[in-house]
Every structure is written in C-alpha cells, then in structure tokens.
Amino acid sequence: MSLCSGGFSPSLPSVGFLLSDIEVFLFSFLWVIEQRIMVVSLLELCVRSAIDNLQYISDVGETDIQLLKRILPHCNAEQLNHIESSTKGRDLSPITDDLWRKCYGRKFGNDAVEMVKERMSDRKCKFKWRQLYQAKCREQDEIQRKGVSRLRELYKEQNSQKERKQIVPIDLKPPESKRIKRTGPGGSSGPSSKAPAKGRLMQKARMEFAKSNAASRQASMAKSRLNLNNGINQRPGGSFRR
Questions:
Q1: Residue 60's closest CA among 87, 33, 28, 31?
Q2: Cα(166)–Cα(92) distance, rounded to whole angstroms?
Q3: CA separation for the pair 141, 111 (Å, rounded)
Q4: Pairwise CA distance, residues 1 & 9, whole Å
C-alpha cells in the first residue's frame, strides 16, 4: 500500500516498492513546502513593495490590520497624516496613535512626551497623539514666525540708527543772487537791494568811520595853523610876510 493511498502495507514490502513510496512522499512533502514558501514570498513581496512606495499610498480601505501594522511604522509624519486623511470610513487611530507618539518624541524629544503624559494624567483627559503633534507643530511655527518678525524689526532699527549717525556735508555758501558785488581795491559799490542786513550795517559803519577820521584831520590842521600864527605874532618887532 502506498503512502498516497493513506497508509502503509501490513506485510514487509520489497525494496523497490519501498523506494518508490518514499520518493512519492518526499516529492509530495517538498511540493507542499514549496507552495507555502511561495505564498509567504508573495506576501512579503507585497509588503516590501508597499513600504518602498509609501509616498503613493492614500486610502488603505479595508486592508488587513496586521498588514497595516507592518507597513505604517515605516511612514514619516507627513506620509502618515496623508494616509489617515485620505482613508474614508475607517478610523486608523488604534494603529497609528502609538506611531504618532513616536513621531512626537522624535521631533520634540522624549522629555516633551513625558510632560504631555503627566499633564493628561493630572487633568484626567486623553488626546490623540496626532492632534497633539499637529498642535505642537502649529505652536512652533508661530514662535518661529514671531522670532523672524522681531529680527526684521531689530535690523531695521539698527539701520535707522546708522543713518542718523552719518555725517552729511552742508554747503554754507550763500546763493549768487544774495552776494554783495564789490568793485576794485579801495572802492565798493553800494549794497544791492537783496544784501543781508548785516552787510548793510557794516557799510554804514565804514562810512561813518571814514567821515569821523576826515573831520579829526581837518580839526588838527586848523589847530596847527592857529598855533603857528600865534607864535609869529609874539616875536618882538617882527612881522610875518609871505
């Protein structure tokens, strides 16, 4: 009786018959193993292909949860968020919540994870780690935006201070139309109607000074003549003739 018929022969079989049954048994066993290996290889191939193309995965539909547990841990935060947002009619948080916790720890540190756990425990509330991750990212973006805005204001203020401290040369020459025209040496023309008041006062002072000098010279000359005449008249018996 062969192995394929479901049992062994009760009598001692011949060597040739025994070798034939062993060969059939071995071939049957190897065929079953090969089929199982082939099935496992195809499954592994599908899983690896999905992992290699995570950027193209969106709605996972009713994919087996065990397969998702093998595929989704290889996603980054952006890919994980895209898959969850694209999947309709199915809550993936039982699979992804722990993955979001790990993403939170990688981005903000394990100390931040422990602090969030303590706060939720003290307040006796529980939030999904996906929501916590997204809220923390928005908070960090707002802090960064305010920091950049503050740096821009400081930069503008520093430039304004530099501009105020710069030395700007000023031309103090009066315009040509306001200058006093002068003639050659020793003479001068009167001040123009547009000359400044200070120039007019100087002109008047010079003229008065010149008049006073001329008057004093005339007085001195008259006094000298008078003294000379008095001296001649006092000589005894003398007379003065020209």
A1: 87
A2: 64
A3: 20
A4: 5
